[in-house]
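Changelog-adjacent note: as of this version, every example in the card shows the full chain rather than a window. The one below runs 222 residues end to end.
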Amino acid sequence: MKKGLILLCAFLVSGGAWLFAQDKVLWVDRFSAGEGGKTIPAGWTLDQKTGTPVVRLEAEGGRTYVRFYSEKSSFGLRKEMSFDIKEYPYLNWKWKVSRLPEKGDFTQKDTDDQAAQVYVLFPRFPAKVNTEIVGYLWESQAKNKGKEGPSPAWSKSKVIVLQAGPERLNEWVAEKRNVYEDYKRLFKKEPPKVGGVSLYINTQHTQGVGEAFFDDIYFSKD
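Full-length structure tokens:
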């Protein structure tokens, strides 16, 4: 994951922002309101690291979501944003995993593969080398559920394992995290402004296969 995380930080240097605020909600994206068939959702940038990325907006039952499929590959989508996390501290999203990279284990650098990852970026100057990241993982190993700490791929990235193992495969899972509190607990200080959000999948370390789906994602005041 290291190369991709560094590229994420570099991407923030270019500037620009996208956000949509409505009362208590700050949308990252309403995938459910989109149309299936597109490869890259509007407003997002593809970060291709290794292998061939398979990412596509798909529709089922009148609802649209983003599908990621990884076979010995590593890639993600990233979107720039700029706001004070204290104003919208909660990150809300739905995700589903249908295939896990069986040998993936985030505790070791050479097995650091996950089917689904959500990252919130906090750039400090210079952003290319000084961006802190709070990450949420869907891990392969059930024993890792609930673990948190530094990512083996990037020293300024702290991750939390929300889901792990096959227990909830093929099930849409709703998540809600207080990113502001997570940042303070993990980094032991106050955060700067949010600089972006990214969604990732990778299986290149263990040469495995993973498949994940992401639905609507937004920040909220409560």
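Structural remarks: Confidence is low (pLDDT under 50) at residues 10-21.
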